[in-house]
Fold each of these.
Amino acid sequence: MNRLYFLPIFSLIAACQLDAEHSILPNTPEVAPTTISAIPAPPGYERVAARDSFTIWLRRLPLKNDNRVYLYNGELKENQSAQFAVVDIPVGRKNLQQCADAIIRLRTEYFLHSGKEDKIIFTATDGTALSFPAWRKGTRYRLSGNRLVTYVTQQTTTDKRVDLEKFLEIVFAYCGTISLHKEMRQISIEEMQPGDVLIKGGSPGHAMIIIDMAVNTSGQKLFMLAQGYMPAQDMHVVKNPIDARLCPWYQIDNTGVIDTPEWSFSVKDLRRWR
């Protein structure tokens, strides 16, 4: 099996401050990409074949015209140098949807879009299963001591979106990098596919999703990363702070370290939903 070599990347839109002579991708595209799939693969590379409908769904994620990252309260994020493109998904109005939560949001929206609401279930840090199907039937969760307990209420609505947002507030409050790390299984870097996650469980920890991948005829693979961050903010495709030539695609080098604008991972941090 071909070894993957990864190196992080900078931005294609306005942010790649590169000497055009040394850049593989254009610094200023004539038309800003409107979806993940509209971000071009470098010359000689093609997107990997979709292994499942989640990969296809991720590639269709819309990107915002305004390439600025806003916080949950409407203020601009102080660091505006990390993003290549901003994903157009809800962030909410509370400081809840951070890094692991943004990944939970993607998984939830995919299941909702695909008619798989029964799969919208996450495990809280204390091990409690948080179920959207149960929530729709009146199950609620509250903290008792240091454990979550369930109770039943009649406070349901016919508006699925309203119910979902209320449910996700609970999920975001009681799930995080520690719980997601436990929910996922470790995989090798050779197994990496779109939808997999780089995650370091902890307080603080961090998590980023492999939003897309590309491959050349030699089997060398590239990937793009997207993240939410603290405080809660727009999810965004990140640049590469180390090697901007492939903007915004990453490779892996022989160090096994993946440096991103605001976090560093090891190839051992790669995980997949069970």
Note: The longest strand covers residues 206-216.
Amino acid sequence: MRPPSLSARLLAVSVVWIAALTLGGGLLLERAIEDTLVRNFDRRLADVLPRMVAGAELDAAGDLVGFGRFALDPAYGEPYSGRYWQVSAKGRADRRSRSLWDRTLVLDLDRPCPQVCTGRSDQFPGEPLRIVERDVVLPGSTTVFRFAVAEAAGALDQEVARVRRLLWTSLGLLALGLLALAALQASVGLRPLRRLSASIAAIRSGRLARVPERVVPPEVEPLVAELNALIAQNEAVVEAARTHAGNLAHALKTPISVMMNEAEAGSPDLAQTVRREVATMRRHIDHHLARARAAARRPDSTARTPAWPSLERLARAIERIHADRGVVIDIDGDREAVFRGEMQDFEEMAGNLLDNAAKYGGGRVFATLRCHGEWLELVVEDDGPGIPVPLREGLFRRGARLDQDKPGTGLGLAIVRDIAAMHGGAVELGESEDLGGLQVVLRLPAVPPAPRGGRRSATARLA
């Protein structure tokens, strides 16, 4: 199933986020505004209660007879005006405002209201009320009177509805504006990726060689740099393959011509000539195949290879191969050394060096592993005759062999140098101080060792 586009993902996230914020914020804001309007409404009603209590007058029997000092609002004297008051007590007659006319406020006298109690009532059909109540004991009386003031809540409900409509309309317009902004951001923000796609299409069609790095924002520059590096590497691999194919064809041309000439001339040494030229062709084929594999293999920056176990395996194998000559390989150094690369690469390099030392030396080989920070060194020494300084660099050329009596293709050091260079390493030739023969120093990237109390070093005698 094809995943959704980046634009669709960005818009989906924006829609969900904006909708959640708008809905959540709108509900909270709506509740806050409604509570504020209701509190203000109730506070205005509650302001009437202290004046009623201050103006209350009792007769000799303890009944409320009126509010001598209470200036009544004219609305309380107009029937069904929407503003009402009432004073009630258990066992005593209710005192009601004229505006109630033939109606009575139903008050729950069993519920104590030592402080101001507010609430909503629908006891009058078609006229919802807001009621404010308080229990008061008047001077000279032990009776608990319930003072209540009520007002029709229709105007309050209309105001709340109006504010609610205004709020949700405003939030809806704001959400639409934010969604339009998110769509614009997705379109403008992803434009560099569309330019990158166009550049890749131009590279494929041959109109461009590389993706321009200056026309992309900093966030996309690493991607462009990696893409250009990949293109450069592919070009290098293709060019190397083309070069190796051309070199191989050129190298095979001469042996083939020699065999054809010998065959046409009916030479009596044809079989020997064929064997000699086929051996030459085989060396060329092995050389170019090995170098093509080394050039095509891309180093893996995440690969880790413990060097000591690989070196032990190679030493045992090479000792068995040259057992008839009594070759002995000693290894020494850092057992914890780790090569930052693939095991195949390390064993191909180390195997070539150990095999050359065993083949061309006198039978003794020293191999030493050393770590210097982020670099690993493999030093291979033999007790052979060594190589003069002027001839050392020539050993890295393809097919270079100083000892023609020993079997081989003369490709070992060239392959080692190619693979080491691929990893950013190097190979150096020198003279062994201990054995007197050739010393080869292979320098490769290593994984820096973790801080420890000490480093173990040991010498292993391999049988």
Note: The CA atoms of residues 286 and 308 lie 28 Å apart.
Amino acid sequence: MTVKPPKHRSQIKIYYDILRVIWSEGGQARLTKILHGANLSYDRLQKYMAQLKEKGFVVEHRNEEEKIVWYELTDKAYNFLEQFKRIKRFMDAFGFPI
């Protein structure tokens, strides 16, 4: 019997996708890059970014003169990404999608 992946991403997978996009950009990324890379609407991304900031996974930086906002990963985020990959490999080995 094969386990089918869920049709919708879980909240934890969305967090992972957002953090993975920032990591792939060298640990810092602007909102537009994250928006496209994580495949989220602007409103949903804003909600998730606020939660990630509150939980200490990202730090928001602003350049008020140029109206630029970018996000930087914290050590906590790097640790999360590492542990998530380990768990994903484990789950995949047993045929369970995350």
Note: The chain has four helices and three strands.
